Amino acid sequence: MTQTAPLLAATFEAVTATVQDCIDAGASTAPDAWRAAAVLWFALHGLVTVPQAVNSLDWPPFDQFLTDCVTRTVGRREQPA
């Protein structure tokens, strides 16, 4: 086990717990917090690394892409106005 493994595990547990909180509050349609957290983890890493590696495309603004990654991954429910 590397020295970063405990920190990585704790961070992933925090992301999973946050997704579960969203599910419990009715703000997320994700059926499984662990799976949604894993997909979100991958999506966010890709959000940062892919535009750097493939800079020949006209990527959307970061904030817009970030919002899309989180809401589509976690399955956010629209909140009444």
Q: What this model shows, in words?
A:
This protein has three helices and no strands. With 81 residues, the protein is mainly alpha-helical. The protein has one domain (6-74). The chain is flat.
SS element count, helices: 3
How much helix, percentage-wise, in residues? 55-70%
Question: What's the domain count?
Answer: 1
Note the beta-strand portion.
Answer: under 5%
What is the chain-wise order of helices and strands? HHH
Structural class of the secondary structure composition? mainly alpha
Radius of gyration over C-alpha positions, nearest whole angstrom: 15 Å
Termini Cα gap: 48 Å
Q: Report the oligomer.
A: single chain
* Mean pLDDT over all positions: 88
In short:
The chain has 81 residues and is mainly alpha-helical. It has helices at residues 5-24, 33-53, 62-74.
